[in-house]
Design a protein that fits this description.
Shape: globular
Radius of gyration: 21 Å
Number of helices: 6
Strand content: 35-45%
Oligomer: single chain
Keywords: Membrane, Transmembrane, Transmembrane helix
């Protein structure tokens, strides 16, 4: 994303800069250009074709058409839209093309949500996350700002030198690719910015302070942690570019950073972002390695394919809230997140989202992995069989007042980008995301 935006600044410069740009694109993993979402916002999400007059795919015109869910995937269908397809997210005029959306319920208002995304590129080196309060349209096909979006007041950071293909990142000023989420003790944003440990790192900041929330909205004690942008540390060797980390909490409220899913890497965090002790994945390394080798999607290797983390985390008790015998406990509560199996072929990226669940208490061993990737209803397919690029970036419980923990029948949001052109979301139940988990212990 960073490179795609900086490209506009250097388009008139010599091929050397172009080469830097191409290398810089590795941060985002996609060369797709930014396009406006105007046409998409003028129509509802795609609906299934009329069975009496089926719609045929285009003849290689690059248009994506509605397609039934492949047998290779588990379908996610909206609980609220008429077509059961996803809804679009709009940040208003001038922000078409905002990417990496987040949706969280407003702390006190009904049917109101805070939405956050990476601002549309402006052709310079200053970058911003934008936010607003939003509401759904009458038919629930569009979630849009009810006020002009604001820039979140996240301070740019000074970083170390960036080498080789990442040299352009030294010119960056501002946050990238934020994940906004409720934890058990507050609401936070994790984002990328220039790192004091290397080139680019991950930071955490209290979101309530960024939005000027009052004591009536969030308890003052829950606005103290990470009042300013704080870089998250990690034990052992760091990559020059760090991205897509998420934090999670154990049952006692201890906070941890999860750095990678394959191979796993995570550590306990202090309130200043530093780590406590070693990489904890080593404790369950052999057990997790055997499980993940059996359950994870196969990666053929090469630059075009990878596994990487995608969303923040949530905790879920594996029974239904409406069941009177359902009681949250250590044996039936797990942490879950979404990761991507990414492929990049013929200059087009495809992200297949999978669910990952692990225990909420030490040693936090992997509980299970989705048997199939998730298919968001409304995702398109081209005439040549290429599927629409949709990358899931955030999760949140839908209900006002619900924070980090939920149950299988609780409603939740997934936020996602669409072909680097715009943003969408879908409301489902947690059991839909976690359906058909393959378990490590069978």
């Amino acid at each position: 994303m960073i490179v795609r935006d900086l490209k506009r600044v250097f388009i008139f410069l010599v091929p050397t800069i172009v080469l830097l740009y191409l290398g810089f694109s590795l941060y985002h993993g996609s060369f797709a250009p930014t396009e406006l979402l105007e046409q998409a916002l003028s129509r509802p999400p795609p609906s299934p074709p009329d069975s009496s007059s089926p719609k045929k795919d285009g003849d290689g015109d690059g248009t994506y058409h509605f397609a039934p869910t492949p047998r290779t995937h588990n379908e996610l269908s909206s609980l609220a839209t008429p077509s059961r397809s996803y809804f679009l997210i709009s940040f208003g005029p001038g922000q078409e093309g905002a990417i990496n959306p987040n949706i969280i319920p407003h702390p006190t208002l009904d049917n109101t949500y805070a939405i956050v995304a990476q601002e549309v590129a402006r052709g310079g080196f200053d970058f911003h996350e934008i936010a607003c309060y939003a509401a759904f349209s009458a038919n629930n096909t569009l979630l849009s700002c009810t006020e002009p979006p604001r820039n979140l007041p996240i301070e740019p950071t000074k970083g170390g030198p960036c080498e080789g293909q990442y040299k352009l990142l030294e010119l960056n000023a501002g946050p990238h690719d934020a994940r906004v989420f409720w934890g058990p003790d507050g609401v936070y944003a994790v984002y990328g910015s220039n790192s004091r440990f290397g080139c680019f790192g991950q930071f955490i900041q209290n979101f309530a302070g960024l939005m000027d929330w009052t004591a009536e909205m969030v308890a003052p004690s829950k606005m103290e942690a990470f009042k300013t942008g704080t870089e998250i540390d990690r034990p052992g060797k760091r990559g020059e570019i760090e991205k897509n980390w998420f934090v999670f909490w154990d049952r006692e409220g201890g906070m941890y950073a999860h750095y990678d899913v394959l191979p796993r890497s995570f550590a306990k965090l202090e309130g200043n972002g530093s780590v406590v002790g070693p990489d904890l994945a080593a404790v369950v390394g052999e057990k997790d390695e055997k499980c993940l080798a059996r359950l994870m999607p196969r990666v053929e290797g090469g630059d075009g394919e990878s596994i990487h983390q995608a969303t923040n985390s949530l905790a879920v008790t594996l029974c239904r809230r409406r069941d009177p015998e359902c009681v949250a406990g250590r044996e039936n509560t797990v942490v879950f997140a979404v990761f991507h199996h990414k492929t990049f072929r013929d200059w087009h990226s495809v992200y297949e989202p999978y669910a990952l669940a692990f225990r909420q208490e030490a040693p936090f061993e992997v509980y299970g992995v989705g048997r199939k990737p998730l298919w968001i209803r409304g995702r398109g397919v081209r005439g040549d069989g290429v599927t629409e690029m949709m990358f899931v970036t955030s999760m949140a419980w839908k209900g006002k007042g619900q924070r980090y923990h939920g149950y299988l029948d609780d409603e939740m949001f997934l936020g996602f980008g669409i072909e680097d052109k715009g943003t969408g979301g879908i409301d489902v139940r947690a059991e839909d995301v976690l359906a058909d988990l393959l378990l490590c212990e069978t």
